[in-house]
Design goal:
The chain has 371 residues and is α/β, with parallel strands linked by helices. The protein folds into 2 domains: 171 residues, Glycogen Phosphorylase B (Rossmann fold), CATH 3.40.50; 171 residues, 3-Layer(aba) Sandwich (Rossmann fold). It is 41% helix and 14% strand. The chain is built from 15 helices and 12 strands. The strands form 2 sheets. The chain has a 6-stranded parallel sheet with strand order 2-1-3-4-5-6. Strands 9-8-7-10-11-12 form a 6-stranded parallel sheet, sandwiched between helices.
């Protein structure tokens, strides 16, 4: 039941039809807030196309035009909210989804929260500054999920709140891997900045030592065909592409694996790592974005350089040859996940929505436009 004293929230974010962590985080947040008694309206930045027009998604410019034609009118639903919570990525995505929501919310006199998630923030703010900063100064609050992103915004004079990404640990079964098998899992989308090709090459190297090794790759993206061709050209058996997996099916995927691997070259605070931790998988990852704060090298996992498949293969081999250390990493990593549960963050969101200032991070920007 909705609580009449709580502010009404509108969440503007990618829906679950869109691959990526933002949609999962937004959906999880909306669900948890409703259970706390909030009235929540979810406005997808990627509304479903009408039946008979979905084939148009195959054409990028037509897809964008139709998406905006459906998305922009839906923002009128913001008039029913007290607080407008806008999830944001970088570059064109920022201009096409968050900016219209910010403008409409400002014109309607709503309190605005910009929840910025992209690991590409540093480059975005540096190269697109003139198109970005006016909108950042317009919102009432900027929230980021990591200390890494906070420092990026601090360099440009913004003081922001940090509220960590949330993982529903009740959905994932933690178990110790004994014995630890060479069953590798990658759950990053098939885009260049996630470096899945590096993971495939590393697996090929690893398989020369572990003939029964397997690699499951879950995700979709622009490199789908290219990565399949890479795997075929290497002639390596044991690689399985399973495509985009529904969030409800992800726990089973982690349950079947023994080691989590990640080769991203741009990142922030990936939920996939938290899911691996919650499932008991020791992790080997590159150290970009906030990853070194999540996977502390030699403490909760292993960090390897970017674009170094040999280092990734050797790190996985180290876990397989030192299973006690691997289990210790996984056990410590489970404690890390506790800081990403709803119990840990719900009061932070409640204070934010209620308009209580964060004593250590008041937003420096001021509104520059009123309708």
């Amino acid at each position: 039941m909705n609580h009449p004293m709580l502010p009404k929230i509108a969440i503007v974010a990618p829906g679950l039809d869109s691959p990526g962590g933002q949609g999962i985080q937004a959906s999880t947040l909306a669900s948890k807030l409703r259970r706390e008694g909030y009235e929540v309206r979810f406005i997808p930045a990627n509304p479903r196309f009408p039946r008979g027009t979905r084939w148009l998604r195959r054409f990028p410019y037509v897809r964008t035009l139709l998406n905006e034609m459906l998305y922009l009118p839906s923002l009128l639903r913001l008039r029913h909210a007290d607080v407008v919570h806008v999830f944001s990525a970088s570059y064109w995505s920022f201009l096409l989804a968050p900016v219209p929501a910010i403008l409409v919310a400002r014109c309607l006199g709503k309190r605005e929260v910009l929840n910025y998630h992209s690991g590409e923030a540093a480059d975005h703010l540096a190269r697109w500054g003139k198109l970005v900063h006016p909108w950042l100064r317009m919102v009432d609050e900027i929230v980021v999920p990591s200390e890494y992103l906070k420092q990026v915004f601090v360099r440009y004079g913004y003081q922001v709140r940090v509220i960590k990404n949330t993982v529903d640990t009740s959905s994932f079964h933690y178990r110790e891997r004994s014995p630890l098998r060479p069953r590798l899992l990658s759950t990053r989308n098939l885009e260049p900045h996630y470096g899945v090709g590096n993971t495939i090459i590393a697996f090929t190297m690893l398989r020369t030592r572990y003939k029964d090794a397997t690699l499951t790759i879950a995700g979709s993206g622009s490199q789908h065909d290219e990565l399949r061709q890479l795997a075929a050209s290497l002639g390596t058996h044991g690689i399985r592409f399973v495509g985009m997996i529904e969030p409800s099916a992800m726990p089973k995927l982690y349950e079947e694996a023994d080691i989590f691997v990640n080769s991203s070259v741009v990142d922030n605070q990936p939920v996939s790592v938290l899911e691996a931790f919650a499932s008991g998988l020791p992790a080997v990852t590159t150290g970009v974005g906030d990853l070194p704060n999540m996977v502390r090298d030699g403490v909760t996992g292993l960090i390897v350089p970017t674009w170094d498949p040999l280092a990734l293969a050797e790190a996985v081999a180290f876990l397989l040859e030192n299973t006690d250390r691997a289990r210790l990493f996984a056990h410590r990593a489970k404690e890390e996940v506790n800081q990403h549960t709803w119990a840990w963050v719900k009061d932070k969101w409640g204070a934010l929505y209620a308009g209580h200032r964060d004593p250590v991070s008041e937003v420096s920007g001021q509104p520059i436009l009123k309708c």
